[in-house]
């Protein structure tokens, strides 16, 4: 009988790069352009929609945490109107990302991945957003 040994690299299950290592950001300008054409994740408006990058880490989704001065890859973005993204009193940038998404009852990593898979298909993406809003209203946190 032959024995096998599986060698697991130290970073195999890490949500962050190894100390001192930095993975370059992946840009997807077409996806960001697409995100800006969609309705706001929270209120559904099409006015002044911005691509909000999801910075929080999620090992379940394979999402690494990004530093304060770093944006994550563009695939980790969701549509938010300016009011919900930066300007309103309860905007994501003002209350903090974790608090904002918890208050909305939305998992931004799930949403970002679903929209990434729907890139270019506006009907499918709007259906994902409508379902996300409906679930958040039904089960507010």
From TrEMBL:
> Cross-referenced InterPro entries, in alphabetical order?
DUF968
Report the superkingdom from the record. Answer: Bacteria
What name is this protein filed under? DUF968 domain-containing protein
